[in-house]
Amino acid sequence: MTALEGWTEGEHTDPSTGVSHPTYRRGSGPGVVVVSEIPGITAEVLTFAEEVVAEGFTVVLPHLFGAVPSPSGPGAAVRTLAQVCVNREFNKLRVGETSPVATWLRSLARTLHAELGGPGVGALGMCFTGGFALAMMVDDVVVAPVLAQPSLPFAIGRARGADLNLSPADLAVVKRRAAAGCSVLGLKYADDPTVGTRFETLTAEIGDAFVRVELPGKKHSTLTAHRQQVAVDRVLEFFRAELL
């Protein structure tokens, strides 16, 4: 039996680097890669992912950190943070650099699109992984990127709080694709300090291509632990418009 009931366990290896990570897959239709937040693939992440499946999409959950399934709560978060803080696939503090894991995620999206076809692939990251969907947009197959409370690099200081976790070359591609019509959806609580001023940076860099959804309050996880149905509905609407 798979670790996640109803989900098919697999693995993707990026042929360009040899890097492999486990994956969990469910559904049919165009592909959507949902990258979980810390502490990992929790019951709340699964609830959201299954809502995406129910809308007519093939959802792939990469397993990049944490247990499967992952418990929720501060204890699990601390254990996972200790794991990712020594993992060089994730850029936690440097500005102007893309996290190396983006290369693997782009390869996963290309493979999924080659199999399923359609206009492209959706990508959604949350919190620690929020900006990864933007990094995946560097590849043309990713046509529906969603950033839920993007929190890397950690918003310690003004420069990090404004940084998009992208190299200058990757940012240039994101700007080109946005100018050509690829929208980026962002969600956060208005007073969430972990996001810093990244939404302002995105508006400055790509203008109206950045669609901002800001919820009142100082909570954090817009789609999971502190989910608001209006945010979930907005993501599903975005995927339907761009992928179906």
UniProtKB/TrEMBL annotation:
InterPro entries according to UniProt: AB_hydrolase_fold, Dienelactn_hydro
UniProt-annotated stretches for the region Disordered: 1-26
Keyword hit for Hydrolase: yes
Domain of life: Bacteria
Membrane-spanning parts: none
Ranges for domain Dienelactone hydrolase: 28-143
One MF term in the entry's GO annotations: hydrolase activity
Entries under SUPFAM superfamilies matching the protein: alpha/beta-Hydrolases (SSF53474)
Alphabetical keyword list: Hydrolase
Protein name: Dienelactone hydrolase
Organism field: Microlunatus antarcticus
